[in-house]
Amino acid sequence: MTDQCTVLIVDDNTEDCTTYRRYLTQDRGEEVYGVVVAHTGHEALRLFEEKVPDCVLLYHMMPDMDGLKVLASLRDSEGKVTCPVLMLTGSANPWVAVKAIKGGAEDYLIKEDVTSETLRCAIANAIEKRASQQMLEESHAQFEAAFTDAAIGMALVAPDGRWLRVNPAFTSLLVQFHLRSCGQILFRVNYRA
């Protein structure tokens, strides 16, 4: 890979970290991902700032702070987690899964079910999903700027004819039209009997 993605593995179990590192390595020994390892929540937060990973593999039960607290600490000033996070747990726990996803995790993995293939797939999907979300947000921002700043009047209308939005230029046109048409009959409706 020319642009190697970095995965921050956060787990207090050294053996599991070694296994995940091996899973993220191809058979020929060539790394698919750059790997950085943290064994505590505080170390993870420090490395997150220093290394700026493309994905975080975060174990839920840590000695100094649980994974949900680490996840909450990864939020930026807008309240978003800046890179995809995959939450790991030792057993199936729906409460943790729901909390993790609501807290901003992309996925939830159970340690005993993690294989080389599932881990690589989950990481690749999470990174791809995040990239797609960022592209969509950028596209939306470009549309908003073009719509708002357009010199011509533009309106968004629902299929049923409801007005959804108008831009400032369209509003200006409506005001001018209203001022010019006061007292005039604009439409005649002819009913046939």
Notable characteristics:
alpha/beta, single chain, 2 domains, 193 residues, 7 strands, 17% strand, 5-stranded parallel sheet
SS field, number of helical segments: 6
Strand content: 15-25%
Overall average pLDDT:
86
* Basic shape: elongated
Main beta sheet: 5 strands, parallel
Enumerate the strands of the largest sheet in spatial order, edge to edge or round the barrel.
Answer: 2-1-3-4-5
Strand tally is: 7
Instruction: Write down the Rg.
Output: 26 Å
Q: Which segments are poorly predicted (pLDDT under 50) over 5 or more consecutive residues?
A: none
CATH superfamily descriptor of the largest domain: Response regulator
CATH topology of the largest domain: Rossmann fold
